[in-house]
Amino acid sequence: MTVATSALDYSYAQPSRAPIMVVGDTIAARQRARHAAEMSGFVTLSDLSPAEAIDALEERATLSALWIELDEAPTSPVRRLLERAGREAARKKFGVVIATRLEQIDDVLCDLADADVDLLVNADEMERLAAISLAVQPQHAGSARDVASDASAARLRQLSEEVSRIASTLARLSTASAGPPLSPATMAPPRDDVPNISAEELRTMIRARRLRSTFLPADLFADPAWDMLLDLLQAEVVQHRVPVSSLCIAAAVPATTALRWIKSMTDRGLLIRRDDPHDGRRVFIEMAPATSAGLRRYFQEVGMAAI
Fold first, then answer.
1. Of 116, 151, 167, which residue is a domain's last?
2. If you ran DSSP here, which 8-state letter would residue 22 be given?
3. Nearest to 26, CA basis, from 131, 127, 99
4. Over the chain (307 residues), what is each successive 10-residue block's mean pLDDT?
5. What InterPro entries does this protein's entry cite (predicted)?
6. pLDDT in tens, 30-42
7. What is the mean pLDDT of the chain?
8. Which residues have a Cβ under 8 Å from the Cβ of 7 and sit 6 or more positions away?
């Protein structure tokens, strides 16, 4: 889908601001990030490799934003840069945007931990432009960025998500990862007062939800929170772990949108992030015990009508 960008109003961009530092792990990645930054009307530093960027961050006092574009699995320099980017994001001196592919998202999240950065996954040009507009908003030490007052940024984000939703693949892979089973210590097994639910019933619900996009436009049914909760409940029942990348697929929305939902539900205590004890490069998501209990009681009450 081709999106015309010439009609958009970039008058909010101010060339007098500090430049955006553009970093990429491949030549193509650097070119992509530089193009997005320049389309937004901002001055960029020479596009840098991850190793160069680490040194440049030590020397550069002022930036409008740090843009990191990743095409490949994180190497040692990329991991160091991601850790540094997380620290910079915590200081809130400038915005940090990281664009990567869905295949790399689990590795990238391991290095970022809970850093407050803007993550883009399989992003198109509109998503990149929207992310830049948000990243360069004025930063205030000790407080979160307030972008609600910037009408241009809000319009860009809304348009970006709408374009991504329309262009996203209708056919989605279903349900849980085939990773190692959860241990009893990290599972939330049903207590005596929490009802069981069968894996077959959950598979039927999930399949019925997926079939809707076969007959009607998929964007009519976007409900990422519910789709992810169903996926996680099924994983809990069959004792499978769910990495972030698999949960993004289960959400049936663009991966960048799914990541925002995962973060929101984790911040609210509905979901729990767990590092893989056997592989430090993976992060798993599971439901909090109270979330699991609530879902199970709900399905006991409504049965298959929940579809």
1. 167
2. E
3. 99
4. 39 59 92 85 83 86 87 92 88 87 89 83 84 67 36 50 42 36 44 71 82 77 87 91 91 88 90 81 87 87 66
5. WH-like_DNA-bd_sf (IPR036388), WH_DNA-bd_sf (IPR036390)
6. 999 888 888 878 7
7. 75
8. none
Rounded to a whole number, what is the distance in angstroms from the first to the last CA of the chain? 32
φ, ψ for residue 121, nearest 5 deg: -125, 125
Report how far apart, in Å, the C-alpha atoms of 229 and of each of 221, 266, 283, 301 are: 15, 12, 17, 17
For position 237, which CATH number holds?
1.10.10.10
144 shares its domain with 206: no
Nearest C-alpha neighbor of 274 from the set 179, 132, 135, 162: 179
Question: What is d(CA 75, CA 82) in angstroms, rounded to the nearest whole number?
Answer: 10
In the chain, the number of structural domains is 2
Nearest to 307 by CA among 26, 121, 148, 298: 298
Is there a domain that residue 27 lies in? yes
In contact, 243 and 282? CB cutoff 8 Å: yes
Give the tens place of pLDDT for each residue, 155-164. 455 545 544 4
Residue type, 19: P
41 lies in which domain range?
20-167
> Which stretches of the chain are DSSP H helices?
27-39, 50-59, 76-91, 105-112, 125-135, 151-167, 199-215, 224-238, 244-250, 255-267, 289-302
**Torsion angle, alpha carbons of 198, 199, 200, 203, to 10:** 130
